[in-house]
Amino acid sequence: MIDKDKTVSLLLRIGLFVVFVYAGISALMNPSNWIGFVPQWIDIFISRDIFLMIHGITDLIIGIWVVSNFKPFYSGLIASLSLIGIILGNVTQLDIIFRDIGILFASLAFMVFNYRKN
Q1: CA angle 78, 99, 81 (to 5 degrees)
Q2: DSSP state letters, 1-29
């Protein structure tokens, strides 16, 4: 018999892993494809190129953390906060970020699913 909780957790982990790891690798290997998504105001604090490199590495870490199932509530929380930052930073580009909203809700579901299971 299939354990529904384990299956749901696995499906959410794999989905989030693929999204975060793909974005991280792609941002590091093809920064010119991603630099346009970094808001201009980031330049006030750090160059957009450096920000993109840090963000790409962070995405890789989040993806690996989520799929590892180590402290899943917290990895879901960090994934959610990252996605909220992306959405708020690009709120005027709804044609692009609407996908991130769906991924945000998947990470929130993962977080809620794992609340108090740590």
Answers
A1: 15
A2: ---HHHHHHHHHHHHHHHHHHHHHHHHHH
Token representation of residue 10: 């696995």
Cα-based angle 111, 101, 59 (whole degrees, multiple of 5)? 65
88 CB-near residues (< 8 Å, 6+ apart) = none
The count of residues in the chain is 118
Which tokens sit at 50? Answer: 């450096």
Q: How far apart are CA 25 and CA 97, in angstroms?
A: 19
Residues 17-55 pLDDT 10s: 999 999 999 999 999 999 988 988 999 999 999 999 999
